[in-house]
Write a structure and sequence with these properties.
Spore Coat Polysaccharide Biosynthesis Protein SpsA, Chain A; 2 domains; Glyco_trans_6; signal-anchor; transmembrane; hexosyltransferase activity; membrane
């Protein structure tokens, strides 16, 4: 009799809990939502594009057909971005390849200028991927800046150096970078920062408009036109021509970019095909299939040498003087 009462009471309790559950539907997701509401955590408020991006303030093209912003100087509110990221502490990674004669000619200027202008005031890890550790220059960095140096395999041809960086990027992202940074940029070493390269550039998937081709019709840009190549883009298709000297995003997104480009490069190699602009051709194919969530204007990667008098007053990064005849000699 005593045990029967206990069983009846237990059954009644279970029935009561079931009724309450049916009435209130108090799921785990609702519990989490309620917690957020109770905590009134204004710091976790998501930053919307309209909070900081003002396309009407520019005479240039500022939006793509898939509604991704094209960032120009004057289209963003730096103060809003700084306030947001002051509450959401981030670390930004920057990978740079330095091989052969490029080490002595460009690396120190690139790192020194990045130290001054790249994500100023925020934590940055510069990953130097170099084929001769003994030639790594000593550079005193500012606070919040860290440099990590990794030795990489030396390739026989400069074309292979260019294409195999996708393999190296993917390996290092998997091994350690993805656990150390919130955003990651991959850049060529033969460039120099001269203006603030800031928070407005951060995004899930970031592509750089090529300074030579950003005003051209997609029919005129140098996409890969060999139908047998993995990088092939048919005439009449495509959106913009992107520069492989700068691309970025979240580590996982950069990993996907690098892996897909590498897959295309290796498939072409099996068929004795080499895309017209090597890894850049494959990067353009990737962004043709997977639209970037943010585009950077040519101000973020400019060439003073070949732009026929065109001038923008707010250049952030520019191409250093090229000397391919001497620098692309593999020693």
């Amino acid at each position: 009799m005593k045990y029967r009462r206990k069983i009846i009471l237990l059954l009644l309790l279970l029935l009561l809990l079931w009724i309450l559950h049916r009435q209130h539907r108090f799921s785990t997701k609702k519990l989490q939502g309620t917690y957020r509401c109770w905590s009134v955590d204004t710091q976790s408020k998501e930053l919307k594009l309209s909070d900081w991006f003002f396309p009407s303030k520019s005479m240039n093209l500022t939006n793509t057909s898939w509604s991704a912003p094209i960032v120009w100087e004057g289209t963003f509110d730096e103060e809003v971005l700084e306030k947001y990221y002051a509450k959401h502490k981030i670390t930004v990674g920057l990978t740079v390849f330095a091989v052969g004669r490029y080490i002595d000619h460009y690396l120190k200027k690139f790192i020194s200028s990045a130290d001054m202008f790249f994500m100023a005031g925020h934590k940055v890890i510069i990953y130097v991927l170099i084929d001769d550790l003994s030639r790594m220059p000593w550079i005193q960095l500012s606070r919040l800046r860290t440099i990590k140096v990794f030795e990489i395999k030396r390739e026989k041809r400069w074309q292979d150096i260019s294409m195999m960086r996708m393999k190296t990027i993917s390996e290092h992202v998997v091994n350690h970078i993805q656990y150390e940074v919130d955003f990651l940029f991959c850049m060529d070493v033969d460039q120099i920062f001269i203006g603030k390269y800031g928070l407005e550039t951060l995004g899930e998937s970031v592509a750089q408009l090529h300074a030579y081709w950003y005003k051209e019709d997609p029919k005129e840009v140098p996409y890969e036109r060999n139908e047998s190549s993995e990088a092939y883009i048919p005439i009449g298709m495509g959106d913009f021509y992107y520069h492989a000297a700068v691309f970025g995003g979240t580590p996982i997104q950069v990993l996907d970019i690098a892996r897909e480009c590498l897959k295309g490069i290796m498939n072409d190699k099996k068929n004795s095909i080499e895309a017209v602009w090597h890894d850049e051709s494959h990067l353009n194919k990737y962004f043709f299939l997977h639209k970037p969530t943010k585009l950077l204007s040519p101000e973020y990667c400019w060439d003073y040498g070949r732009m026929n008098g065109l001038y923008y007053p707010n250049i952030k990064l520019y191409w250093a003087v090229k000397d391919y005849k001497n620098l692309r000699v593999i020693t």
